Amino acid sequence: MSVCRMDAVSGFCEGCFRTLDEIAAWSRLDDADKRATWQLIAQRIAGARA
User: InterPro entries recorded for this chain (predicted)?
Assistant: First the structure.
């Protein structure tokens, strides 16, 4: 999407489900850290749908 809009309650972006810290660090993360973040995002999405 390339445009993040933060949810005030959850603290996650409404589109990508990352935190502000994750968004800020994303370009500096190596592949392993990005994969770990994607796993967290998947858990957040599953929790939001539950």
Answer: DUF1289
